[in-house]
From TrEMBL:
<feature type="transmembrane region" description="Helical">
    <location>
        <begin position="7"/>
        <end position="29"/>
    </location>
</feature>
<keyword id="KW-1133">Transmembrane helix</keyword>
<keyword id="KW-0472">Membrane</keyword>
<feature type="transmembrane region" description="Helical">
    <location>
        <begin position="116"/>
        <end position="137"/>
    </location>
</feature>
<feature type="transmembrane region" description="Helical">
    <location>
        <begin position="81"/>
        <end position="110"/>
    </location>
</feature>
<keyword id="KW-0812">Transmembrane</keyword>
<protein>
    <recommendedName>
        <fullName>Small multi-drug export protein</fullName>
    </recommendedName>
</protein>
<feature type="transmembrane region" description="Helical">
    <location>
        <begin position="35"/>
        <end position="60"/>
    </location>
</feature>
Length: 154
């Protein structure tokens, strides 16, 4: 049944990065297993979207009935991040604010090379994965040390 646990962490982190560590705790994996499958989940999303991104853009363009607005608050923010920090900024923000899918779509839309997308996203996933995983695994201990009421204890 370990495979089902691993797959649940992988799928959760494919959709929302922090979902991986939360799922890992819930199914009883070690923090290392959780971290590795969280990183793997994000990278599966990155690879899938990177290789299908251009095709998805064309498909969505065909399916749209109206032409999308060129400048929305969301697109302005994306351009601002891109101009200030480039691919490094997108990779840094992907686990925090964006989803692995959203961050990769953003990188593909700015025509970043696949190798850069894979490299930066992998580094980001490794770093943020260990931060999120250890934070979530240690949260119950921190709450109990600082006078928490035991809500997060097992």
């Amino acid at each position: 049944m370990e495979v089902a646990k691993y797959l649940s962490v992988l799928v959760a982190s494919m959709l929302k990065f922090v979902g991986g560590p939360v799922t890992g705790v819930a199914v009883g994996l070690t923090w290392v297993e959780t971290w590795l499958f969280t990183v793997a989940g994000m990278m599966v999303s990155v690879v899938l979207v990177t290789y299908t991104g251009a095709g998805l853009q064309l498909l969505l363009a065909r399916l749209r009935r109206t032409k999308p607005k060129r400048f929305t608050p969301r697109t302005r923010l994306a351009v601002k991040v891109w101009k200030r920090a480039g691919m490094l900024g997108i990779a840094f923000l992907t686990p925090l604010l964006l989803t692995p899918i959203g961050g990769t779509i953003l990188a593909v839309s700015f025509k970043v090379s696949r190798s850069l997308i894979f490299g930066y996203m992998l580094i980001s996933a490794l770093v943020w994965g260990i931060i999120f995983t250890l934070a979530i695994y240690e949260l119950p201990e921190l709450f109990s040390r600082f006078g928490g009421n035991g809500i997060l204890r097992k």
